[in-house]
Every structure is written in C-alpha cells, then in structure tokens.
Amino acid sequence: MITHLLTDHTGVEVIGVDLTTPMNDEIKSELIDAFHRHLVLVIRDQNLDPQQMLGAVHLFGEVFAQHNKRFSLADCPQIHYLSNEDHHSDGNRYIPGAGFHTDHSNAPEPPKATVLFARSLPETGGDTQFVNMYSAYDDLSDTIKLKIADLKAVHVYQSRHSTRKLMPLSEESQKDVLDGVVHPLVRTHPETSRKALYINPIRIEAIEGLSEPEALTLLDELLTHATQEKYQYRHKWRLGDLVMWDNRCLLHKANDDYDMTQLRYLYRVMLKGDKPI
C-alpha cells in the first residue's frame, strides 16, 4: 500500500489496495488510521459491483440507512446512486450534493462517514470540495468560540433557509425521517477528541436561544469563515475512485460545472455514527 498526502490538512491518496480481495490486519489498521488522520480517504483504481462495495465499506463500520429511498439500487437497496439525470417535478435538473453540507445531520445519530464510488464521470468538472472543520474551528477567535460553545441547532430534512432544493422524500421514507433534531454547533470527535464546527446550511432551521435574524447571521459568518480556500481540498474524480470522508469534521459539496449531456453517476453508502456531543 502506497499513500500520498493530497493537502497538508485534508486528504490522502491510497494506491495498491484491491478492495475485492481479503485484506490482512496490518493493511486494515493502516487504512483506518489514515482515515482518522486525513479525513478524506481516496482509494484509487477499484472495480466494484454493489455487493463488493458493501463488503469493502464494512471494514470501516456498519451501513447507515439513507433517508430518501427513491435513490436506492433495486438489487442492493443499502446503496444509493447519485446521478445528474434526475429532475425535480418542475423539470429542473436535480444536482445531488450541491452546496456545502454534512450528510443527514437531521438524524439523531448522523452517519460518521460517506463513501462514494465513481462509475461514470464527465470529461471535466464535477469535482467534490471538502472543508476541514477542525481547522476552521481552531482558527476562530476566543470570543467566537466562547459565544458558540453551548449553542445548539435544530436540524430538519429541508431548512426553510436553504438555497438548495432537496428531492422530496418518498412516501416510504417519510415515516422514518425525523424533523427537529437538536445538535451542538461544536462537536467533539469520538475518535480523536478534537473539536470541530458542526453546521449545515441545508438542514439547520434554527439555533436555540437566538432569534431567526441572529441565527442566520451567525450561521452565515461561520460558513463564510469555514469555506475559505485554505481549509479546502478539491477532489478531481477518476473512474475507479472510492472516496470516503468523515462527516463529523468536514463539510462537502458537489459541483455542477460540467457538460450535463455527460453522465455523472456514483454509488453512495453511509456508515452509522453516534450522537454529536
């Protein structure tokens, strides 16, 4: 196994690992350690069918039940697909992953990780950007850290304040997805004990104890700070990439800067996490 850092703060490339074959304990340990240290794990040159992908991700944890079952694969429902060929009911194209966010934060125990596997890609564009929320938190002033230390946000499936329109939940999904889940604005990572900002402009409906204008102003200030280029890693996809990232200390977003006549299609799995504290 060969690894290369992708930035000095986020991301590591892994070469020479075949996720379809048995793996010894030393390689497993190295991969898990690399994930915790570098937050984005890019494992190159994989060739996985859905069942093989499920087998590969079990190395890192149990599969989390994704919320909108309309995107599940018929023959492997634990895996969902991401595609630029879906459309809203008004005819507008649906771009999954647009806008910085962390996945499924409206769950009481949000997924600790998301895993994507590239099946079809446009010739250029369609990158995924990641933001290191450890670093963003560390660089806040002491005044801001004190201000947000005990604040809690209310997360819903689709915030009224979000600029991104999500695909409506299927009827089957609606009964399983909660609204109004409360999480801290600063969470402590259960593996590393480091603090990270935990915000999601797509899901946060309110901040307890703040008026709506105060909450929106604070969230905008935190997001503007966190998404500075110095905290980012931008992943340029290659076919066969399996990319796993840590939702507990990262934001991410997909870009729609490519020819929409070219298919962008990826498999997605999420892994069970714990309650943010």
Structure description:
The structure is a single chain. The protein is of the alpha+beta class and about 280 residues long. It has one domain (about 1-270): 4-Layer Sandwich (Double-stranded beta-helix). Helices cover about 20% and strands about 25% of the residues. The chain has six helices and 17 strands. The strands form four sheets. Strands 1, 2, 3, 4, 5, 6, 7, 15 and 17 form a nine-stranded mixed sheet that branches. A three-stranded antiparallel sheet has the order 14-8-16. It has a three-stranded antiparallel sheet with strand order 10-9-13. The longest helix is centred in the C-terminal third of the chain and has 15 residues, at about 210-225. The two termini are about 35 Å apart.
What would the keywords be for this entry?
single chain; nine-stranded mixed β-sheet; alpha+beta; globular; 6 helices; about 280 residues
Please count the beta strands (DSSP E, at least 2 residues each): 17
CATH superfamily name? Clavaminate synthase-like
Mean pLDDT: 95
Contiguous helical run count: 6
**N- to C-terminal separation?**
35 Å
Secondary structural class:
alpha+beta
* Unreliable segments of 5+ consecutive residues: none
Number of domains: 1
The CATH topology is given as Double-stranded beta-helix
Give the proportion of residues in helices: 10-25%
Strand content: 25-35%
Question: For the CA atoms, what is the radius of gyration?
Answer: 18 Å
The CATH architecture designation is 4-Layer Sandwich
SSE succession: EEHEHEEEEEHHEHEEEEHEEEE
Shape verdict: globular
- How is the main sheet built? 9 strands, mixed
CATH class: Alpha Beta
